[in-house]
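User: Could you write out the 3D structure of this protein bound to MTE? I've included everything you need below.
Assistant: Certainly. Input first, then the structure.
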Amino acid sequence: MTAYRPPHIAASEITPERFFLNRRTFLATAVGGLVLGGATAARAAVLQALPSPYKLDEAMTPEEDVTSYNNYYEFGTGKGDPSANSGSFKPSPWTVKVDGMVGRPKEFGLEELLTFPLEERTYRMRCVEAWSMVIPWIGFPLAALLDKVEPLGSAKYVAFETVVRPEEMPGQAGYFQPLEWPYREGLRLDEARHPLTILSVGLYGRTLPNQNGAPIRLVVPWKYGFKGIKSIVRISLTETPPPCTWNLVAPNEYGFYANVNPAVDHPRWSQATENRIGEGGFFGANRRDTLPFNGYGDDVASLYAGMDLKANF
Ligand SMILES: Nc1nc2c(c(=O)[nH]1)N[C@H]1C(S)=C(S)[C@@H](COP(=O)(O)O)O[C@H]1N2
Ligand SMILES: [Mo]
């Protein structure tokens, strides 16, 4: 794994003032990261990021749980499969093609993606299966990438696709195929441009482990986890709602919006409470109330003003 934030990025490219205060630390850590990256080739490289105001007053989920309890069907359907079966996946070299209804379609290389101003943001994450985590992501606003390609006025949605690589992804190679590939997801353009929506390239101070969606995945903290598509190779701006994997599989169970909503149950289970992973006692003492929009309602509820959230689940 060689991807790391290049140490030569000019501080002037990274605008927030607090960064300049941290510049010395940044350089020291970046150089340390190179050494460490070389010494421990199998481990993700250190990734330096700016601090951000997006923090929570809740304990972070231990890194061990974040990287071993996953959903990533390309590597198998069990929670332990992604960490066990993703060792041969090659997240570098990598490109993300951005096309569709844009003025300037472009293919971005991984190195270029890592030059967007990276922030560390600790987000509450809620899976539709009623478990949750608190994860310190490293990433940048999706809006920053969209600005570069100049969406046309007619663009209303953003479609995402995961890589298809049966040679490296055992879940795509077997006789039993749980999903149709590529895994696809989509957002309304205003959701995609919302400042909380990020493309993540790391967690816990390092580049993303394969099982968490290396080298780049979507994070939308007010939506159920399945919207957070992993290992993205294509982003297309469209005029009509894009096909979304779980919505195609079971449209009555997984809506396009998938906003976290304790008042709208999944047809087969309640969404009123959740189990916080990593706090001991699975499905026991850690049961806590699920919050509307996963607790991000002050930021995002206005996106859905006037909409019936039960009908548009
Ligand atoms: N390509 C792809 N992306 C995916 C999935 C998947 O199976 N394939 N699973 C989704 C689901 S259901 C969840 S809950 C999150 C889990 O992310 P994590 O393993 O990093 O916690 O990834 C989402 N992104
Ligand atoms: Mo999920």
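Residues 71, 127-129, 225-226 surround molybdenum atom (ligand 2) (CB under 6 Å).
User: Perfect, thank you.
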